[in-house]
Amino acid sequence: MKSPTLLVLAFVFQFGSAGTAEVPKTNSSLPIDPALLGIAPYCQTGLVMTSDGRGSGFVASDRKLFFSAAHVVRGDASWGGAPDWYAGVNGASTPDAGTAVASRGYFRWDKYATMRSAFGENSKQAFSNDVILAWGVADFIGSDPAVIDFLGGKRLVHQQPCMITGYPAVISYYGTTDGFFQYATTMRAEGFKSEDGPYVVATLISTGPGNSGGPVWTQDTAGHWLASGILVSGRPSESGVYTMNNTVQSLLKAAAPAIQNPRKSSVFVKGLSSTTYFWQTTKPQKIPDGVQKFTVIPLSLKRYPVEATVSKLILNLNISTTHVGDLIVLLQSPDGVQYVLHDSEGAGAHDLIFTDKNLSAEFSGAMANGRWQLKVQDRLKGDLATVNSFKLEVGTD
Amino acid sequence: MSKPPRIRILTGLLFALGVAVWFFTQSQKTDKHPQAAVPAAEHDAHAAHLERTGKLAEFAKEWRATLSLVRSHPEPELVRARLLELRLKWLEEDPLVLAQIVAFLLRAGDDAATGLPFEVGPGGVLGSWPTLRTFLLELLACADPDQAALTAREVLHATRSVDEYALALKPLTRPGPWRAPDAELADRFAGMLGNRDWQNADGFAEALDLVRVCHSPAVVAALEDWLNSGGDARLAGMALHEAAAEDPARVVLPVAADPDLLADTPVLRAELMARAAISDPAQEAAVLSYLENGSISQDEKNRFLGLFPLRSATTGYRLYGGNPAPFQQATVAADDDATLKIVQSWLLDPDLQTLQPSLEAMETRVRTWVNQEWLLRDRK
Hints:
The structure holds two protein chains of two kinds.
Chain A: E1 27-28, E2 30-31, E3 45-50, E4 53-59, E5 65-68, H1 70-73, E6 84-87, E7 101-102, E8 105-109, H2 110-119, H3 124-127, E9 132-135, E10 147-148, H4 152-157, E11 161-166, E12 170-171, E13 175-176, E14 183-184, E15 188-189, E16 193-196, E17 199-203, E18 205-206, E19 215-219, E20 225-235, E21 238-243, H5 248-255, E22 275-280, E23 285-287, E24 291-301, E25 310-320, E26 327-332, E27 338-343, E28 352-358, H6 360-363, E29 370-378, E30 385-396
Parallel strand pairs in A: 1-18, 10-20
Antiparallel strand pairs in A: 2-14, 3-4, 3-6, 4-5, 5-9, 6-7, 8-9, 11-14, 11-15, 11-19, 12-13, 16-17, 17-21, 19-20, 20-21, 22-30, 23-30, 24-29, 25-28, 25-30, 26-27, 26-29
Chain B: H1 5-27, H2 40-53, H3 55-71, H4 76-90, H5 95-108, E1 119-120, E2 126-128, H6 132-140, H7 145-158, H8 162-168, H9 170-173, H10 182-193, H11 202-207, H12 210-213, H13 217-228, H14 233-246, H15 248-257, H16 266-273, H17 281-292, H18 298-307, E3 313-315, H19 329-346, H20 356-379
Antiparallel strand pairs in B: 1-2
Helix pairs in contact in B: 2-5, 3-4, 5-6, 5-7, 6-8, 7-8, 10-13, 13-14, 14-15, 15-17, 16-18, 18-20, 19-20
């Protein structure tokens, strides 16, 4: 009987018949030099163990967060236990359970189970939602987490050189890896093609079962490693990847209060917003007193590429009043994404002021160019309100 | 030079007549939607206001062009692009004018299928609209909230489409004085569940998210009744899980109080009970009564103990409210502390001896988390 810890998540990977001696024509995973285990991006890659089997993952955005594939943890609509993380593993024997860092839980897309149920576990619709973000109380690694490349899909489809790391149990063409060794493909440009949403596939690159959830790395112009995708499917000479994109910010936002991220509910990964501008109103605007209708204070943003979406949004707002409880204030993007900044709270307190309020997660994916609207109502009579300044810092990838 | 007053009045009357004729002719077409009864005086007042601003003609012209385009059955992506363009333009309008015009167009009843799916995108905004009326209803949620709530209730009263129903609930869930009372939302939710013709639509699945944002116990009860009467277990389970992740007591207490509830879906019941927050004495008692209930199988209890306290969740774009982000670090830590204490007492409880292996595994798991939390506190 197989030990549960040695079961591999093979259902995603489809192999040729056993014993077939094919000559590999592919960029196939090879064991890494153990001396590399302490440096990025290898130190950010880890072994992920669940009660159902093993997979791979990587720590990104925060030391208390790691990504993996949803099918590594649980494939159907029900819930699996929180997965364990093993860092720096490189040996033939099953790692000591005492070296694991237990995660406390994980987040996944509701659509994963829906698509898997509707189209099957090996469907492109399931793979296009095949991601989890596990969160923990303790740090999963002692070094910096990986930087997420929210343009991962574009980079991979546009032939950016990439490398897949992870802990395969079996390698296509070669067979078992005889343990828990970290492997990596050779860094090179692959011909990834879009399949469905964030799911892309390339031929002539392969790893094997157990590598599911492993990161796909690219490098920026300065040579920094970027986590651009997650390996979710494969077979000999083919790999399928869930590419990082702006929707991943929803996972980060969901986990932020659980790990008590200092940015509270808004997580923004710095360094990737390629276009950032500041916009502000030039004149104070009085709000009609006791009128139950929104006064709109617009800011027209025009300098971004046509289809650019928001990856970073910082708000500064100053409204003077002697009764903030009279006010309802919301911000609306050009395509109608709304966020309520203030809803009649605060009773008779004076002045409503937001300084560097990070709304990146709330507006992630919203259209950048166009007419942004600050909407303000002073619903009760007796206290005058004036919007003294309204300033947005908007970044797009 | 300005026109003489009589000519202006005459021009205005002719224009209003033209608008009325247009609406009448449009309403005779085949893609007709049942209309809500609208008080005539209110209708006239809106017409007069919009006529004065000249906006109605402008919007009506664009709407006619869009109807013609969609009725010519172009590629769905072409429709999506046209609707997105129209949406961006109309959203620049004054919120009250936008609300009034959208209300007019909805009352006119014209509709056409777009070939696009019902798909929720960033910020809870639809990225594509299955019909032109769903496009209008989606706009309504961005328009003046007082007017939008009025129009939404008209649509909820009259519509035969669950996609429309789901979207019409949106203005009633917006934070602020416009938010409908929980009792009203619960009634409307039960009404939706009761319509058997609606249950395979995308809008129906999205509207189940109302369980998360409406805090009436009646909403959970309605969903559980629906599940017991043959409703889709996966959809109901997902909605109950999201509600329980945010506020476990809403789900855990009624499930524990009624052993027949979810008895046909033992895995779901075990997983929902595993979301209990044991630092709440009522939930602690509920969990103990669940474990001591002889009518619940050992398998189900072992499943429960294998996950408890479950702090994993689904997230993503939601039609109502923000994306789910249900766990706060301090609350999780307090629950884990309480859980460790209680599981250590359960290990000594002779009534729970048959569950000993699962209890031991659970104790090990929870102790690991509690130790991690203590180390974290020490570092602070």
